[in-house]
Design brief:
By secondary structure, the chain is α/β, with parallel strands linked by helices. α3 packs across α4 and α3 packs across α9. Strands 3, 5, 6, 9, 10, 17, 18 and 19 form an 8-stranded mixed beta sheet that branches. Strands 13-12-11-14-15-16 form a 6-stranded parallel beta sheet, sandwiched between helices. It has a 3-stranded antiparallel beta sheet with strand order 2-1-4, with no helix packed on it. It has 2 domains: 207 residues, Medium-chain alcohol dehydrogenases, catalytic domain (Quinone Oxidoreductase, Chain A, domain 1, Alpha-Beta Complex); 128 residues, NAD(P)-binding Rossmann-like Domain (Rossmann fold, 3-Layer(aba) Sandwich), CATH 3.40.50.720. The chain is built from 9 helices and 19 strands. The chain binds zinc ion (2 copies). One zinc ion binds next to loops.
Length: 350
Amino acid sequence: MRAVQFSPEYGLQYVDMPRPDLRPDEVLLRVDACGVCGSDRQVIKGESAPQGTAFPVILGHEVAGTVVDCGDHGAEWPVGTTVIVHPFTACGTCAACARGQDNLCIRQGCIGYTRPGGFAEFVAVPVAQLVRRPETLDPAGAALLVDAYATPYRALMEAEMEPGRTVLVIGTGGLGLAALQLLQAWPAASVGAVSRRAEGVAIAESFGAHLAVTTEDDPRSVARSLRRWSGAGGIDIVIDTVSDRLSVAFAVDVVRNGGTIVCVGMSADSVEVPMAKLVRRGIRVIGSYASRKADVESMVRWVAEGRFDPAKLIGEQLDLRSVAAAFSPARSAGRVVVLPNQADVGAQGG
Ligand SMILES: [Zn+2]
Ligand SMILES: [Zn+2]
């Protein structure tokens, strides 16, 4: 099969290799679509990879596929079943797993890092990771549900999101835009968006932000106007998809007393916040990592109910040979999706 391998020494390589052999707990999928995630970019830039990543690796953890070899699992997952793949594997026995927090499993693995991923024509996947995908759901959009959407969904769950809240999304990359779409479906009372770049404002508005602003000029006056806009002295929930020194300071400035800041961005920054301020104002700052399989199932249900359309997030679709292009610096807004079994798609707008 054809695949794209990555190693720090040789970069991205388009290679031919045998199809994976199946272990007893696995089925073989034909990869119909695989999303390119920000964390793939970080690994390719030489930043940290998830623990247990062994190079060379076939990257790609946002997989939509079709069962082509069901191994011992024909009763539940017959050949031809269309699926998406929850990428985070869990041990099922540690304390986090026992609490139902399988996204925080201490022995977590991830398809596309600790085992081969979806930048390939075929991938072997444990059946425990499979989520049924309605055939009517386009694979390119469906692939984005497992991480691009499930991650902000989990973050909003951690922040105890309820209808009627005022929510501010910091950052207008893939996670931020997906969060805005989910918030439209929730529904929140008021949804704001903050982008560092002026271009981010129009994009955020097109993804449903009621108010979108840029901090390009004067972050302090922007924070002041956001507090006024909230109508309650500050924002109920701030979802920070950047989570660096500046964005967290901004979040503390705009959140209301007793409000919640949920961080999903994984910057390498150390953040300085006056603790007396956090304590006196009763602000909760929480991290939210990845997603649970049940979150992915919720996302499939939401799409089936017509609550949002994941195709909106697709910026570009590439064939396998063009994967390297997905990592060049200037990309359009939205996510890049790779279609490994579609010959010569080249680069298409979406
Ligand atoms: Zn990811
Ligand atoms: Zn575990």
